[in-house]
Write the structure tokens for this entry.
Amino acid sequence: MKRVPATQFIKNIGRYLRHAGEGPYVITSHGIDNAVLVSARDFHDLRARAGYAEIPETTPRPLPVRENDPMRRALSIVGTSIRNPPKERDLIEALKGRAGRSNLVTIFFSDVDDMTIAGLVNRGYLTWAELDAALKRAKGVDDEKASFIRGMAEFELDPTARSGTRPSR
């Protein structure tokens, strides 16, 4: 049996899947065995030797297509950090300053990544100016994230940014 650290397995998963018949591969995390990768043929052989019923061969079903919805992603991220996960309206109202949930705003800025935030603006849930105003109500926001949002708010308000022209120097 070949032992493979999980990080190496993840980085080279395609290679390990192609060579599964040369396994089994024991996947470890911090030196502890977590999983074993065997080929489908070896798996079926092991099941048959153990007396389990054969698993019928089926055509794999395609994975469901999920819409890349930044609001769902933001709600999921924020919802893992608080007791009562917010609904879409709650989050938007808090970020727009219409609800007194400063803890929700702080969690949003500390946990939600820049791409998700940009997606929310792109889909029209919020504007960069609204997010910039929400930053002032949040506590302990990462300087890099705050700088990104403030920069985007300035860009959004700059009339030359929309027209595609550059200001003269």
In short: The chain has two domains: 2-49, 70-163. Residues 161-169 have pLDDT under 50 and may be disordered.
